[in-house]
Sequence to fold (93 residues):
Amino acid sequence: LTGWFPHRFWGDARWSRTQLLGEIARGHWGMCKAYLRDVVAAPDLRRSGLAGRLVFAPLTSMTEESIARARRELAPLREQARLAAADDEPDDP
Fold:
């Protein structure tokens, strides 16, 4: 690769409590209770391992419009997936 130079960065970022709460309120971040097994899981398995534990702030006037629109558009799809999963569960004898 001619003319290609890798960039390296070293450092850390710190957020104040207020800044983090603002990011959560705007819908940029969610939260969940995580365990060591979640951190050490293979990268392609991490998200699925958090199913049912992820939480996001409710839609408010602070939620960015693109995030609010995406959540509204995805709500029916999520409900369809939930119903389909419930239909796939075996009936109790």
